[in-house]
Amino acid sequence: xxxxxxxxxxxxxxxxxxxxxxxxxxxxxxxxxxxxxxxxxxxxxxxxxxxxxxxxxxxxxxxxxxxxxx
Length: 70
Known about the structure:
With 70 residues, the chain is mostly helical. It has two domains: 1-28; 38-70, no CATH class. The protein contains two helices and no strands. The N and C termini lie far apart (66 Å).
């Protein structure tokens, strides 16, 4: 049987492992949406996956210039 001090460290490691997995689970969709926001329109939906996309600010320019806000 493990000593109480060692059991506490193992318990802490499992907690951090679960919290790290949860943080990754929550952050991946945000990073995915950001990566799509910086792609040109022609690269968002393609029949073949694009592993190394080109990044541009065209979508953001369209939002600020072409769509009136306030």
